[in-house]
Design brief:
The protein has 16 helices and 15 strands. By secondary structure, the chain is an alpha/beta fold. The protein has three domains: 83 residues, Arc Repressor Mutant, subunit A (Orthogonal Bundle), CATH 1.10.10; 171 residues, Nucleotidyltransferase, domain 5; 163 residues, Nucleotidyltransferase, domain 5 (2-Layer Sandwich). The strands form four sheets. A five-stranded mixed beta sheet has the order 6-5-4-7-8, with helices on both faces. This is Making large colonies protein.
């Protein structure tokens, strides 16, 4: 990507905040462009060579970036030194938790997943899930040397905010899910591990992954959708993830759509239905095996995709039609040019769904209105876990506007209302001014 295109506006209220903001712009540029020279960074951040040189030197001393070699541009003079993010500069854990899956990953500063632990299972009671996650986190932490463990910035937690809701629509048992109502998993993980935990809605977290390491490297504005056991999403505008009042901006699952035409779909109680009833892997499982759908695994659904099962084709058309109508409503409000769609299914599914969705959107388009481009996401099933692991790095290293105002935003754990790092002195010492603390004041 052209380094000039990664410029982010915003100027600070005091020199310390402005310095931190500019440091993070440099990190963002390197994350998006892959590499850049000192001169390119100076132009992009609109700083003098001396000012950008001081920032670069600090980031090198903090082991967040490194000199990756020289580049000759064909002109006379010295070759340019190329700078890149240091993969070992920081690490983070990501925990993706949903109604049918537990996944934990370890990610480095470049976005590379070092290793993972996956459990395809109906979500157990909170105490059992916590024990599973503690074991997985410890086994992943053991992969790093003691020195590198000091560079772990935290745990990102991506989960639906209302795990005990819509269980009937999703065909799931109520007993264990009701126990999650009053259980603060973020606080429990923080107490068990001693690491800060940054929690977000799973759709928003996946949108962070796409912003950091996917289509967001070239696009500052997009709507993100993820088709998993249910459907969720997130919204990115001006290069930042929009959270909304309760952290649920972009959660398209509850948008009203016409009832499904499939004979296996549950009948709504009103003249309209919710998008999640028609657009989810649970609705696919229900159509494949109405009497036994709760027992089908993701591999069973993938097998139906690869076999091009007639029932899968029927569901695909119905799902795309529902999502297409919801997207037309979103377009009317947001006026954006890009929609990124991702999901748990791989193989032939992404291309087939993208084509069906594009057709549905264009058929529903009002006169004289263009349809945004629809592209498939970068991570498929990994999106939630990569998004979760991206949260500590997002709050610690991205140039959020709140840095310039002293970080006064409010939100759930991970919204970063405080830049006070006193609670985590060892990591703060190693990572300089970049370590954030989750806000648990809500």
């Amino acid at each position: 990507m052209n380094v000039e295109e990664t410029r982010t506006s915003g100027r600070g209220s005091n020199s310390a905040q402005l310095r931190r903001y500019n440091e993070r712009i440099v990190l963002q540029i390197l994350r998006r462009a892959g590499e850049a020279s000192k001169a390119e960074l100076a132009r992009a951040v609109q700083l003098t060579n001396a000012a950008i040189g001081a920032i670069i030197q600090d980031l090198i001393e903090e082991d967040l970036i490194f000199e990756a070699g020289k580049r000759h541009d064909g002109s006379r003079g010295q070759p340019a030194t190329i700078l890149k993010l240091a993969p070992d500069g920081a690490f983070s854990f990501g925990v993706r938790l949903d109604r049918t899956n537990l996944e934990t990953v370890l990610m480095d500063f470049s976005g590379h997943i070092i290793d993972r632990r996956i459990h395809d299972m109906i979500l157990p009671a909170p105490e059992q899930a916590l024990e599973i996650l503690k074991e997985d986190l410890e086994s992943l932490r053991a992969l790093l040397s003691e020195e590198l463990r000091e560079r772990i910035t935290g745990i990102g937690l991506a989960q639906p905010f209302n795990l005990d809701a819509w269980l009937h629509e999703l065909g799931l048992p109520e007993a264990d899910f009701k126990k999650w109502n009053d259980f603060d998993l973020a606080a429990a993980l923080e107490e068990a591990t001693g690491l800060p935990v940054f929690g977000e809605n799973d759709g928003t977290a996946a949108a962070v992954a796409e912003l950091f390491y996917g289509h967001g490297r070239q696009n500052d504005d997009f709507l993100y959708l993820f088709l998993g056991p249910a459907i969720g999403g997130g919204l990115v505008l001006k290069g930042d993830v929009i959270r909304g009042l309760s952290g649920n901006a972009g959660d398209v699952a509850f948008m009203p759509v016409p009832p499904s035409g499939l004979s296996t779909a549950p009948k709504p109680k009103q003249p309209w239905d919710l998008l999640l009833t028609r657009a989810s892997l649970v609705s696919l499982a229900r159509h494949l095996s109405p009497e036994n759908f709760a027992q089908l695994s993701r591999s069973d659904l993938q097998a139906a995709v690869e076999a091009n099962d007639a029932r899968y084709q029927e569901w695909l058309e119905d799902c795309a039609s529902a999502v297409g109508l919801a997207l037309r409503s979103a377009y009317a409000l947001l006026d954006i040019s890009l929609v990124v769609v991702d999901g748990d299914l791989r193989g032939a599914f992404p291309e087939a769904f993208q084509q069906a969705l594009q057709k549905a959107v264009e058929q529903a388009a009002p006169e004289k209105r263009k349809s945004p481009e629809i592209v498939f996401g970068s991570f498929a099933h990994d999106a939630g876990a990569v998004g979760a692991a991206s949260l500590p790095q997002f709050f610690n290293f991205s140039p959020r506007a709140t840095i310039l105002t002293g970080g006064k935003d409010k939100g759930p754990a991970g919204a970063g209302s405080s830049e006070n790092r006193a609670s985590f002195p060892a990591r703060a010492a190693r990572l300089g001014s970049h370590l954030a603390t989750p806000d648990r004041s809500d």
